[in-house]
Design goal:
single chain; about 10% helix; about 280 residues; Cyclophilin; alpha+beta; ten-stranded antiparallel β-sheet; six-stranded mixed β-sheet
Length: about 280
């Protein structure tokens, strides 16, 4: 496990650190791990986990490839909580997808999973950090890991029984860490979060006679980037977390070296320390 070291000297301002980021500071996200949700208000781009929740990742790929979500909507949007979408009436055929899925709330750490340990304490997990640029929690006693419900977490909804996730997904509009290890997080939004944040609030109640989708955010299509023609395929990169640059960036976010600040907390929680992303040059 790579550990981010706390800075011994005052860090540079965040802008200066980002300007100093050369090409070697960035890693390209595999196209098969980019899930694209197309809506009339714009695209939401999700980075699917490369290490955890792989059954749920496979389900998301299958449902996207087979057009399951086309014409559905974000039918449950609660201010400050989640934007949930899918087939709330459960009228669509699953095709090749599985139902239900076995919960992947937390799982044994894969042997090839590399983690950058976050240097500040956390109230919800013994250890937190990053794996391939996505926030994770780790329990050293059980040797398990899980993704975190930070803003933009992409997760599968379920019923009360744990192994009941199937097709319904949600995006967290704010951190909801109390949900960690209670639902399966399989990625996070890296672009288009403003589209999810602006989705009309409200809940469709599941009654065919009264349901009104006219003001819901519609899902026109869902794609995996790797399935698109090469000239239409977006490419994204995340900053590598196992280098000095990200360590300095973390220290700067905690220390707040800008002249604007009079009180500097010298602390930051992991959900406030989002790994930078950018379109691949």
């Amino acid at each position: 496990m790579f550990e981010l070291a706390l800075a011994e000297e005052a860090p540079r301002p965040v802008g200066a650190i980002m300007e100093a980021a050369g090409e070697d500071a960035w890693r390209t996200i595999p196209a098969e791990n980019l899930l694209l949700i197309e809506t009339p208000e714009g695209r939401i781009t999700i980075y699917l986990s490369e290490a955890l929740a792989q059954d749920h990742v496979a389900q998301a790929r299958t449902l996207a490839k087979e057009g399951f979500y086309e014409g559905l909507s974000f039918y449950r949007v609660i201010d400050g909580f989640v934007a949930q979408g899918g087939d709330h009436a459960e009228t669509r055929e699953l095709g090749s997808a599985k139902s239900p899925l076995k919960a992947e709330f937390e799982e044994a750490m894969p042997r090839n999973m590399l983690v950058t340990k976050f240097p500040y304490s956390d109230g919800f997990a013994p250890v937190v950090g990053y794996s391939d640029g996505l926030p994770v929690g780790i329990d050293g006693k059980t040797k398990t890991a899980w993704h975190l419900h930070c803003t933009g977490a992409f997760a599968y909804a379920r019923n009360n029984e744990k192994d009941t996730a199937s097709t319904e997904f949600y995006i967290t509009l704010q951190p909801q860490r109390y949900l960690d290890r209670n639902l399966t997080v399989l990625g996070r939004v890296i672009d288009g979060m403003s589209v999810a944040q602006a989705a009309p609030r409200g809940v469709v109640d599941g009654d065919p006679e009264t349901d009104d989708f006219s003001e819901r955010l519609r899902i026109d299509a869902m794609h995996i980037a790797a399935d698109l023609p090469e000239d239409e395929r977006p490419s994204w990169q995340h900053m590598r977390t196992n280098g000095e640059l990200f360590a300095e960036l973390t220290a700067a976010r905690a220390a707040r070296p800008s002249e604007f600040f009079y009180f500097r907390p010298d602390y930051i929680d992991i959900c406030s320390m989002t790994v930078p992303v950018r379109p691949a040059p």
